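It is worth pausing here to work through a concrete case rather than discussing structure prediction in the abstract. The textbook approach is simple: state the sequence, then state the predicted structure, then interpret. We follow exactly that order.
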Amino acid sequence: METLRLILLVIHILAIAALIGGLLAQVRDDEKRITGIIRDGVGTAFLTGLLLVGLLEAGDGDVNHAKVGVKFAIGLILLILVMANLRKPRIPQGLYVGLLAISVINVVVAVMWSPAHV
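Step two, the predicted structure:
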């Protein structure tokens, strides 16, 4: 079970890196858009996050439901915004900045919410 959790955690981290990397790759572009790497990153991060929570719930450890709820809400917002703008040839600068900011906030919540309280 621990091996599965670690594999999912690595995939989750790589997915977040793909999401943020896909956004940062467009910093200098005049026209921003949702790319495949952004779509795949947010989708994979959301799915692996759900699976990780499922594994935590199935185990004997305590789960911080407040943290899980916050992370779920942030992930769902990101997923909806990305999927709703997937087919658009370009997205507004404000949406681009918002996606990047929410993605970074998601990482900050994960890291700063002490693992001792997970």
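Step three, interpretation. Residues 23 and 101 are 10 Å apart (CA to CA). Residues 2-117 form one domain.
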